[in-house]
Amino acid sequence: DIVMTQSPDSLAVSLGERATISCKSSQRVFDNSNKKNFLAWYQQKPGQPPKLLFYWASTRESGVPDRFSGSGSGTDFTLTISSLQAEDVAVYYCQQYYNTPFTFGPGTRVDV
Amino acid sequence: QVQLVQSGADVKNPGASVKISCEAPGDTFITFYVHWVRQAPGQALEWLGVIDPSGATTNYAQMFQGRVTMTRETSTSTVYMELSSLRSDDTAVYYCATGGSSGSGFNAFEHWGQGTLVKVSS
After folding, report:
1. In chain A, which residues have their Cβ closer than 8 Å to the Cβ of B106?
2. Do residue A97 and residue B62 have CB atoms under 8 angstroms apart?
3. Residue A107 near residue A11, CB atoms below 8 Å
4. Considering only CB atoms, which chain B residues are within 8 Å of A103?
5. Number of A–B residue contacts, CB under 8 Å
6. Is the separation of the CB atoms in A77 and A39 below 8 Å?
7. Using a CB-CB distance cutoff of 8 angstroms, which residues of chain A are in contact with residue B103?
């Protein structure tokens, strides 16, 4: 199984400041045939299902504010919130969908 | 926009089975792979498995092999997930989610159900 790790476990950022979350996979999730990283980012707020933010590591889902960005390739990925807003308080998960079982990271809690 | 509607919360005794439904009216749902993910209280997300658009093929996480069954009724655009031999550590919110289609293969999980709380307690 591909193991996903995230750091930090949690972080507190002032409003308007940058938040950066790291995600690492135990194996490469890059597919040479379609040149894509099978890596997604989700945001989950209390009592809600996860919401897809990025797929293919850096493709923003429709409706996601552009203060969010996804980057990285191979085994190392980053989610950045360039200017934290109050509504961004949530837990963020990375996930690989390269191989089953599709595994999630342990999550990173972002607070103000 | 695909809206997935799951069945309601349930309480089960240890050793029992639970069957959760996930419905999405409309023609497009039948083209999607449907995944099941669970989240124990305060814990991370855990993938249980996936059923293909035709309902003919499933892929289950090894830790649930033998206990989980996913089925699909295309006539009613409904997918079911049954988990048997329930234990207290199966207490969780269970989600269905679409992730990929018959045209594109697997993809990230774009649409999610609202979640179904299953509590296992004697």
Report:
1. 38, 97, 102
2. no
3. no
4. 47
5. 61
6. yes
7. none
For residue B13, the distance in angstroms to the closest alpha carbon of chain A comes to 24
pLDDT at B26: 78
How far is Cα A68 from Cα A53, in angstroms, rounded to an integer?
8
Write out the DSSP string of B72-97: EEGGGTEEEEEE-S--GGG-EEEEEE
- Would you say B9 and B93 are in contact if contact means Cβ atoms under 8 Å apart? no
Residues of B in contact with A97 (CB under 8 A): 99-100, 106-109
Which structure tokens are listed for A75? Answer: 């085994």
Distance of CA B106 to the CA centre of its chain: 16
| pLDDT, tens only, A33-75 | 999 999 999 999 999 999 999 999 999 999 999 999 999 999 9
CA-angle at A104, arms to B34 and A16, nearest 5°: 110
Nearest CA in chain B to A104: B45
Nearest of B40, B43, B118, B120 to residue B86 by alpha carbon:
B120
B88 phi and psi angles, rounded to 5 deg: -60, -30
pLDDT at B118 over 80: yes
pLDDT given for residue A37 in this prediction: 97
CB contact under 8 A, B44 and A106: yes
Q: What pLDDT, on the 0 to 100 scale, is given for residue A54?
A: 98
